[in-house]
Design a protein that fits this description.
Blueprint: H1 5-25, E1 47-55, E2 58-67, E3 70-74, E4 78-82, H2 97-108, E5 112-117, E6 122-128, E7 131-132, E8 137-143, E9 146-147, E10 162-169
Parallel strand pairs: 1-10
Antiparallel strand pairs: 1-2, 3-4, 5-6, 6-7, 8-9, 8-10
Length: 170
């Protein structure tokens, strides 16, 4: 094992543990009613949301982004669907927070990376704009001021939602 392999494995283990704890300990919160024009099953029609990314030293990105659920590719995690059907969270594809981050990164020319966890059927966001959670922090996802009770590829977004990825220390 190389000197860099051990810290990387430790970071991924800590991130997986944090994601598991977050997904298992956050109380389920009912999401707002579907936006006009959508049905109870959801729709993958593009929605416009406000996205904010805040790192340890302040704001990294703020803007409105049009998004829908789609396949996401990261250097670390590979290509996987990120359309709300992950983990059977929604019956049909819908826009999601991680898809919104991915769309913003592609359209506004910044990078992000995440590890794919098959057991969660979701990505753990590891790095945004070269800011890594590492072993001491993680990227928290919240929508309309409330941490998501499921992963970023599972949570359904509605038009006008306020999505935030916030660097959060352990």
């Amino acid at each position: 094992m190389t000197r860099t392999a051990a810290p990387r494995r430790t970071r991924h283990l800590i991130a997986a543990t944090a994601l598991g704890l977050a997904l298992s300990t956050v109380p389920a919160v009912a999401h707002a009613q579907s936006a006009p024009g959508t049905d109870a099953r959801g729709t993958n029609a593009a929605v416009r949301v406000s996205l904010t990314v805040t790192g340890p030293d302040g704001l990294l990105f703020k803007g409105k982004i049009k998004t829908r659920g789609h396949d996401v590719t990261t250097a670390t995690g590979g290509t996987h669907r990120c359309d709300g059907t992950n983990g059977s969270a929604n019956a049909a594809p819908v826009p999601t927070p991680t898809a919104a981050l991915d769309d913003a990164a592609r359209k506004r020319n910044f990078t992000w990376d995440g590890t794919w966890y098959a057991s969660f059927d979701d990505f753990s966001v590891d790095t945004i704009k070269n800011v890594s959670g590492g072993g001491a922090a993680y990227w928290n996802i919240s929508v309309n001021g409330t941490s998501t009770p499921v992963g970023g590829c599972q949570f359904k977004l509605n038009a006008g939602d306020k999505v935030a990825f916030t660097w959060t220390a352990f």
